[in-house]
Specification:
Blueprint (H helix, E strand, L loop, with lengths): L2 H20 L34 E3 L6 H7 L4 H7 L13 E3 L100 E4 L9 E4 L5 E3 L4 E7 L7 E6 L4 E11 L6 E2 L4 E5 L8 E8 L2 E3 L11
Antiparallel strand pairs: 1-2, 3-4, 4-11, 5-10, 6-7, 6-9, 7-8, 8-10, 8-11, 11-12
Length: about 300
Amino acid sequence: MRPVSRIVLLMAAAALAAGCASRQLAPVIERAPAAQITTTPAAPAARAAPVDQRPQTYTVKRGETLYGIALDHGLDYRELAEWNGIANPNVIRVGDTLRLRAPAAPAQSAVQVKPVTTAGAVESRPLGPGGQAAGAAKRPDEVTIARIEPRRSEVKPETKPVPDAPAPAAKPEGSPPASGPQAQGDDEDRVDWSWPVSGKLVARFADPDNKGVDIAARLGEPVLASAPGRVVYSGSGLRGYGKLVIIKHNQTYLSAYAHNDRILVKEGQTVAKGQKIGEVGATDTDAPKLHFEIRRLGKPVDPMKFLPERPS
């Protein structure tokens, strides 16, 4: 091999080796595993409040009474009389338009406060040496009033450690769980119903012919409040009901107890569930029985869908 060719081959080999030495491997990057995405199940939606579809006003028809109108709209007849300026609930006229909602409270008049202005404009000038306005000549009769800084009290307020709030008392083991409307959270219109009297069911709900259920019972048997509430009617002013008691349980539900022989509660009285409110009678009916109704926003509903199953 010629010397020139050998030199060329050596130079090519050197260049190839230099290229391999300068070649760098691509960096290896370790990636952390992708974070797992956890989803929290959505909280159940709060139970919607019942829609009040009652009208704003009502026109009195022939033969109607204020007590019946109040019952049909789930209201206290005394509030209905007050909203409409009725002095005697026994006197209403055919064609009168009654307000079925409480009147809105009168709006308070807004008090406007205007800034106090002076008659003349106030000129502002920068203060010169000695606190005198720049450019103002000092008159001989001027009196210089020294500015007195208020003395700061050196007494530091005494601080006392605030004791920790006491921990709530632990609930004893074995205590019964809370029950009734107070333990039902946002379901405020729910009522814990019970049977008002023991006896045989002789007539079922069939609106408009029968707006409740009829329960046959012995004359004088106790009539019990089906749920806690306030007595909004006690008397015999509704035709066909005899001696009647109406209890308002909340803004949604009323219950009615008709044909009593004696009524043992007064209007405005608060009663407990199971409290004796009257005695079974036969007023405005042909045999001793209790006519029992449940009204939802004034509309009659089937009591059998609310009352618990009776023991066999």
